[in-house]
Amino acid sequence: MKKIIMLGYMGCGKTTIAQKLSSLIQIPYVDLDKYIELKAEMSINQIFESFGEIYFRKLEQDLFVQLLASPENQIIGLGGGTPCYANNHELLKGEGITSIYLKASVETLFSRLVHNKSKRPILASKTEVELKEFIAKHLFERGYYYNQAEYKVNVDDQSIDETVAAIVVLLAQIS
To answer: If we measure between CA atoms, which residue out of 109, 51, 41 comes closest to residue 80?
Structure first.
C-alpha cells in the first residue's frame, strides 16, 4: 500500500497537480473533500451549515483514516485545513506514506485566489487587502502543520508541469 498525500493552502495547486501526477504515474487520485461529500451525500458547505465545524472535522478525520487504511495505492489531496485538526498532521508520517507540502508564498496564493475568490465562500466577501491579510495569517497559523510533511515542493514561479516533474523526480529518488 502506497499513499502519496498532497497538502497545502488553498490555491497552491493540490487538485490540479495531483490529477496530473495521477495520470502520469497511474495511481488513482482521491480528493478528500470530494470523498467527504460523496460519503455524507452533502456539500462541505451544507455539512458546516447543518452540523458545524466540529462535526465536519471529525468526519474529515474518520474518512482520512479510512482512505489511509485502504489497500489501494492512492494519491490523496487534503483540504487546506485538514493537517491542522485532530492529530491529522501525525498521519502524514506513517508506513507507506509519502507526504508532500506544496509550498506557496502569500504573493503566489493571493495572485491565484484573487481572481476566483467568488468560487470560495470563505473568501468571496473579502477586499484585496483583507484577502492578502487572511492568507498571511492562515499560512502563519498553519505553517507548523504543513511543515510536518515529509517533503516540501515550492510552487512559486513554477508551472503545473514543472511542479509535477519535480514531484516525479522526488518519488523516483525515494522509491
So the answer is: 109
The kind and range of the H/E element at 170 are helix 160-174
Q: Cell 509519502 maps to which residue? A: 98
Does the global pTM surpass 0.85?
yes
Residuewise pLDDT in 10s, the chain (175 residues): 699 999 999 999 999 999 999 999 999 999 999 999 999 999 988 998 899 889 999 999 999 999 999 999 999 999 999 999 999 999 998 889 999 999 999 999 999 999 887 777 788 788 999 999 999 999 999 999 999 999 999 999 999 999 999 999 999 998 7
Decide if 77 contacts 64 (C-beta within 8 A).
no
Provide the 10 A C-beta neighbour count for residue 74.
Answer: 19
CB 75 within 8 A of CB 24: no
The DSSP result for 148-167, as a single string, is TSSEEEE-TT--HHHHHHHH
Grid coordinates belonging to 163: 511542479
Distance between start and end Cα atoms, the chain = 13
Q: Which three cell numbers stand for residue 159?
A: 508551472
Cell 498525500 belongs to which residue? 5
What H or E segment, with its residue span, contains residue 21?
Answer: helix 14-25
